[in-house]
């Protein structure tokens, strides 16, 4: 079977770490019965420079005929002076999520036991590693709610966004949370702000209703402010964390830092309601959770692991190649276990840091 993968490397470290992911993928799938045709296209600031648009029509057409998007990262200081609506992040990533209805964003926050030292939390809080799955709703909420506008003048000038959820939007992400929990430790924390916001009262109601179909799963509701505190106080209480879009944005950054380096975090954005867990190949966008890291871009020292792990998620969720995904993940575990580190992972006692290419070679040797 031959599938097209749209490769959108983007800006900053994106074009440096993307080739690492592709090299690993090519090695791993060589022994499977699937063939991947990697097609590159412009996105983000690079696309603005070339075509004037962060998401050119050509890129969108390529993505439409692909089975998955392997995304790098977009944005950077060069484009920060553009009007907000034209900036790379807003004008490429958000429209892609909406266009493909990628409503489910999986952000696994993992601490590898060998990297527990890299976490800013006290060692006893993260000892033995940590494995949290942030499941973030991605196409609703205040990100996309209408109206979204500015109006008026003078002291009365105002701006507004709308926090809004439809029942079906809450239902589908909640089912995914419970389904995911079944494959893990059967525990879901649902995050909201039901003590203040009407949309969040509704969120809690719908989650509670859906829970009736998943009585084997333990459900706990938690206000977002409390959750942000609990995450650093006692992260091990969490397994699957179900979040509305904006709270998920915030909590996933917090969770990522707990793991020590955002350079280790992959994410999958999935759509196609109903295809979850079936034999179909759900379309997905796979990207590192970190940004373009302009401070280290161009130096060849970026950590490629998040990009490589994103490729592993693509094998798992879109191509249903669980063994191949695991192969990549264990090669990374092994590489870390052998003490190989990029600069971002170096511990207090220092040590030798490998370049982007060097660590990729180590991972490939360990496949
Ligand atoms: C993320 C990012 C995006 C978001 C930005 C870049 C639009 O922060 O994926 O978490 O807010 O969703
Ligand atoms: Mg974010």
Characterization of this structure:
The chain has 367 residues and is of the alpha/beta class. It folds into two domains: 1-106 and 262-367, Isopropylmalate Dehydrogenase; 120-258, 3-Layer(aba) Sandwich (Isopropylmalate Dehydrogenase), CATH 3.40.718.10. 38% of the residues lie in helices and 19% in strands. The chain has helices at residues 14-29, 45-51, 57-64, 88-99, 123-126, 167-182, 198-211, 224-233, 245-258, 305-317, 322-337, 356-365, and strands at 2-10, 35-40, 68-73, 104-111, 130-137, 149-151, 158-160, 187-192, 218-223, 240-243, 266-270, 284-288. Strands 2-1-3-12-11-4-5-10-8-9 form a ten-stranded mixed β-sheet, sandwiched between helices. It is globular, with a radius of gyration of 20 Å. The two termini are 23 Å apart. 48% of the residues are buried. The protein binds 3-isopropylmalic acid and magnesium ion. The site of magnesium ion has 2 residues, from helix 9.
Summed up:
The protein has 367 residues and is α/β, with parallel strands linked by helices. The protein is built from twelve helices and twelve strands.
Give the helices and strands, then pairings.
Layout: E1 2-10, H1 14-29, E2 35-40, H2 45-51, H3 57-64, E3 68-73, H4 88-99, E4 104-111, H5 123-126, E5 130-137, E6 149-151, E7 158-160, H6 167-182, E8 187-192, H7 198-211, E9 218-223, H8 224-233, E10 240-243, H9 245-258, E11 266-270, E12 284-288, H10 305-317, H11 322-337, H12 356-365
Parallel strand pairs: 1-2, 1-3, 3-12, 5-10, 8-9, 8-10
Antiparallel strand pairs: 4-5, 4-11, 6-7, 11-12
Bound molecules: 3-isopropylmalic acid (IPM) and magnesium ion.
The site of magnesium ion has 2 residues, from helix 9.
């Amino acid at each position: 079977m031959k599938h097209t993968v749209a490769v959108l490397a983007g800006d900053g470290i994106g074009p440096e770490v993307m080739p690492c992911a592709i090299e690993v993928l090519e090695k791993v799938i060589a022994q499977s019965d699937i063939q991947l045709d990697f097609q590159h296209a412009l996105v983000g600031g690079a696309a603005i420079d070339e075509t004037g648009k962060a998401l050119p029509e050509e890129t969108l057409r390529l993505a439409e005929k692909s089975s998955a998007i392997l995304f790098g990262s977009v944005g950077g200081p060069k484009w920060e002076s553009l009007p907000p609506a034209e900036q790379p992040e807003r004008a490429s990533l958000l429209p892609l999520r909406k266009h493909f209805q990628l409503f489910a964003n999986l952000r696994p926050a993992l601490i590898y036991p060998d990297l527990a030292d890299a976490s800013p939390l006290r060692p006893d809080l993260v000892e033995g590693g940590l494995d949290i799955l942030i499941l973030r709703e991605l196409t609703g909420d205040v990100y996309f709610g209408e109206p979204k506008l500015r109006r008026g003048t003078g002291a009365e000038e105002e701006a507004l966004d709308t926090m809004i959820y439809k029942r079906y939007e809450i239902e589908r992400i909640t089912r995914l949370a419970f389904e995911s929990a079944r494959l893990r430790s059967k525990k879901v924390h649902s995050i909201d702000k039901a003590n203040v916001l009407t949309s969040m009262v509704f969120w809690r109601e719908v989650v509670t209703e859906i829970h009736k179909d998943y009585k084997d799963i333990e459900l706990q509701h938690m206000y977002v402010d409390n959750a942000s505190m609990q995450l650093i106080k006692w992260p091990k209480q969490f397994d699957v964390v179900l979040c509305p879009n904006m709270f998920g944005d915030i909590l996933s950054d917090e969770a990522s830092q707990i793991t020590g380096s955002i350079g280790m975090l992959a994410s999958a954005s999935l759509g196609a309601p109903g295809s979850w867990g079936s034999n179909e190949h759900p379309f997905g966008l796979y990207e590192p959770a970190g940004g373009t890291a302009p401070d280290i871009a161009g130096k060849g020292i970026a950590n490629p692991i998040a990009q490589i792990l994103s490729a592993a998620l693509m094998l798992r969720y879109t191509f249903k190649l669980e063994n191949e995904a695991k192969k990549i993940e264990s090669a990374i575990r092994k590489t870390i276990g052998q003490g190989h580190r990029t600069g971002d992972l170096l511990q207090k006692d220092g040590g030798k840091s490998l370049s982007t290419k060097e660590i990729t070679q180590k991972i490939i040797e360990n496949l």
